[in-house]
Each structure stands twice: as C-alpha cells, then as structure tokens.
Write a structure and sequence with these properties.
The chain has about 425 residues and is of the alpha/beta class. It has four domains: about 100 residues, 3-Layer(aba) Sandwich (Rossmann fold), CATH 3.40.50; about 60 residues; about 170 residues, Rossmann fold; about 60 residues, Alpha-Beta Plaits (2-Layer Sandwich). About 45% of the residues lie in helices and about 20% in strands. The chain is built from 14 helices and 14 strands. The chain has a six-stranded mixed β-sheet, with helices on both faces. The longest helix is centred in the middle third of the chain and has 39 residues. It starts with a strand and ends with a strand. The structure holds guanosine-5'-triphosphate and magnesium ion.
Length: about 425
C-alpha cells in the first residue's frame, strides 16, 4: 500500500515526524510523500484549507491508496476530509490499530483489536448518519443511507458480542491471576514505550524466547514467567508497549492485558537509553501518563535505562542523572538503573529488584520451628534463597525468625517444619 502522510504541528501538539514515519514503516506502508504544516487546528479539516488543496494535487499526481494523518481527527473532520479528497483517510490511532491487527496472534488480542476498531468507527458512522439526516448526499465510504444504518446496527451488535467473549477470557485470566496471587510470589511488570526492549529483557531474565524486533508494537499478548534474583523466585510479566497519548478507547480495549501492570508489586519502566535525551524524556512522561490512567503510578517503580551497550559510559551516566532529577521526590521510586538486555548486563537491575522486594508487603515475618536436626541446614539454605534470616536459636532442631515471601511457605511446610506468622 502506498500512502501520503500528513503532519500538523502546533504549540499544543508536538507530533514527532520520526515516530510517525516509524509507525508507517511498522504498518508496512510505502510512503510517497510527507506533508507538514505548522498551524493551530482548523476546525473543519484539521489542516488548513490551503494545505488541503496541496494534498488534493498530490493525490492526483502520486495516486496513493490512502492518506494518513499524524494528528487525531474528530469524526467530523474525518468526514469532511473524505468528502473533499474521496480517498481512504486514517489518523494516527487507526494506524496504530492497523499495526495491532497485523501483530495480534491470540484470540484475546484479536478481539481486543477488533473492539478498539469498532469503538473508533462508531462515532464516525454516527457522524455520517447525522450528515445524511441533514440532507448530505455524500453517503459514507460508498454506502448509502440504508447501508450506513445497517452498518451502525452491525457495529453495535458486534461490540456487544466481543465484550461478552472478552469477559469470558477475562474470567479465565482472573482465575489464573488469583492462583498466582495465592501462591504469593512477588510480581514484577515490565512497562514502557514500544520498542524500548521489554521483551528482550524478559528473555534475558528468564531464558524465554519471546519475539523481540526493531519495530513498534511487536508484543500484544501478555507473558508471565518465573525468574530468580539471587536465588529468590519471582514472577515477571511482559505486555503491550505504550505510545504518546494512548487514547482511552485503546486502553479500554486492552484493559485486561494492561491490568497485569496494575496488579504488579513492582513496575520496571524500561526506556531506550540510546535515543537523544529529549526523546527519552518525552517517552518517560508518555509512559507515566499511561500508568496514571491505569492507576498504577504509585506502585514501587524501577526506571531501567536499557540499551546502554549502544552509548558511552559517560552518556549513560549523564542520562541516568537527568532522569534522577526528573523523578526526584517520587516516593515510590526505588532506583534508576543502567542495563543492556541484549548483552545481559543486568546487575544494577537485580540490586534494585532486591531493594524493592525487601519492602514488599508480600514479605512477612515468620517463625519457623525445625524439629529434625538433619533438616536445619536445608531450611536455612531455603530461607537464604527466598528471604532474610533474622534470628536463629539452636536447640534440638532450631527455631528461626525470618522475612520470607508468603509464596515460599508451602515449600517450607513440605519439608515438614512448622511455620507461624509473627503478628
Ligand atoms: N543494542 C541493544 N538493542 C536492544 C537491547 N534491548 C533490546 N534491543 C533491541 O530493541 C528492539 C526492540 O526490542 P523489543 O524487546 O522487541 O522491545 P519491546 O519493548 O518489547 O517492544 P514492543 O513489544 O514493540 O513494545 C529489538 O531490535 C531488540 O533487539 C539492548 O540492550 N541493546
Ligand atoms: Mg515486546
């Protein structure tokens, strides 16, 4: 597919051309031309009427299949533009959804993408119906009045159906999550802008081989795996990446996927350190916006500057320092760390996770009574691997006080020792 891209920049909307081109590339489009304009939003066409004429000429000349706007179009603008240009028009969010569509593998991801698409189309079709009622004879995307009405009904019906199906999948997911919660293991969630290296990091930590590629939105599904930090067993989750101004209809459609982040005990916010500082800053704030929307902003957070293998040590240090200044005063910040997921340079991250789990409410004080002297050594080793040994009294066997993850209790009781929570 061959497209023309349109970017309107204003004081309020700082659209990045680079990112827009990256999105077009990720969607598999051949870009024939990019038209840029600096002006405030025109209510009718988003861009100015002069630019509209320019685009008309370009369409005649280059014969693209589509025109893609980097800005969000209102339903009325999308309709007006379509009427003027008589060509498929999409905006940034439809572009994102097209990419999602290509990458959706699981049933849940596919349904979520379809729901988001319909949610996006609904106001457009409503607008078309409104125009038709007002006597506009243009119709909508080649449909006449009757067809538009039928299409509207179809969208409503399909949305209801998808919500039902998603609800079922959500219930299953909830059961799995409950089970995990009962196990009591600390859950670490990877969050951050798309292409920051989250999946590569999960792979590096767990030995998994989730797809990781240099393109936007490689991951749409959620993966949760076990991993160990200095012998302590934890869970880690990788999920869909963020983007600037992620609109509520996408957040809603991907709610159950993103919920994994909400349920996490620790959030690792991954950033691509190899980018220029203004980009890192922009993506950092965009990620915070999404976390705010998910009501997960107060979770213990580690900020991980990834891909440090691509920059000098000084550069990495300076960026970490700048980030520290940005996050200064956030009570939930555990640390800013420098890592390379690709080269498995993860020492700083491991230390930060250790710091975070030490203060996790999932760690509690227990008194462990070991009657069989032969088991004392094994129990002590296990405690060291999962928590902190506070005190030990040797007698027949041993009486131990320790901070341990509630998830390990089952494993200790299996050894035949008594475990009691210290109130
Ligand atoms: N040089 C270098 N490249 C990295 C590092 N970590 C990830 N990458 C590369 O960055 C690209 C994106 O990595 P992913 O792991 O797919 O990123 P992601 O955050 O999961 O992206 P989405 O799933 O799209 O949200 C891939 O080409 C990785 O090989 C790193 O530490 N160093
Ligand atoms: Mg990924």
């Amino acid at each position: 597919m061959r497209v023309i891209g349109v970017i309107r920049k204003s004081r309020r909307e700082r659209v990045s051309r680079e990112e827009f081109e990256e999105l077009l590339r990720s969607a598999g489009y051949e870009v024939l031309a990019i038209v840029e304009q600096v002006r405030e939003e025109h209510p009718r066409y988003n861009i100015g009427p002069g630019k509209l004429e320019e685009i008309k000429k370009l369409i005649e000349e280059l014969k693209p299949d589509k025109v893609v706007f980097a800005n969000r179009l209102t339903p009325s603008q999308a309709y007006n533009l379509w009427k003027e240009l008589r060509i498929d028009i999409i905006d940034k969010w439809q572009l994102v959804l097209e990419i999602f569509e290509k990458r959706a593998h699981s049933k849940e991801a596919k349904l979520q993408v379809e729901l988001a698409n319909l949610q996006y189309e609904l106001p457009l079709v409503k607008e078309a119906i409104r125009r038709i009622k007002m006597g506009d004879r243009a119709g909508f995307k080649g449909m006449g009045e009757y067809q538009v009405h039928q299409y509207f009904k179809h969208i409503r019906y399909r949305m209801g159906k998808i919500r039902e199906e998603l609800e079922k999948i959500r219930a299953e997911r909830e059961i799995r999550r409950k089970k995990r919660e009962e196990e009591g293991f600390v859950l670490v969630a990877l969050a951050g802008y798309t292409n920051a290296g989250k999946s590569t990091l999960l792979n590096a930590l767990t030995g998994e081989s989730i797809e990781a590629r240099n393109q936007m939105f490689t991951t749409l599904d959620t993966t949760t795996r076990r991993f160990k930090v200095n012998g302590k067993m934890l869970l880690i989750t990788d999920t869909v990446g963020f983007i600037d101004n992620l609109p509520p209809f996408i957040v809603e459609a991907f709610h159950s996927t993103l919920e994994e982040i909400v349920k996490a005990d620790i959030i690792v916010l991954v950033l691509d350190a190899s980018e220029p500082w203004p980009e890192i800053r922009r993506k950092f704030f965009a990620s915070l916006d999404v976390l705010r929307e998910l009501k997960a902003l107060d979770r213990p957070m580690i900020v991980a500057l990834n891909k440090i293998d691509l920059i000098s040590e000084e550069d990495a240090k300076e960026k970490a320092l700048l980030l520290r200044e940005l996050v200064n005063g956030r009570a939930n910040l555990i640390d800013v760390v420098k890592i390379s997921a690709k080269q498995k340079r993860l020492e700083e991250l491991y230390s930060a996770i250790e710091k975070a789990i030490a203060i996790s409410p999932k760690f509690q004080e227990f008194e462990i009574t070991v009657r069989d002297p032969e088991k004392v050594g094994k129990v002590i080793a296990m405690i060291h691997s999962v928590g902190e040994l506070l005190d030990i009294d040797y007698g027949e066997g041993a009486r131990i006080r320790a901070y341990i993850q509630t998830g390990m209790i089952r494993h200790l009781t299996k050894l035949g020792v008594e475990v009691k929570r210290v109130a």
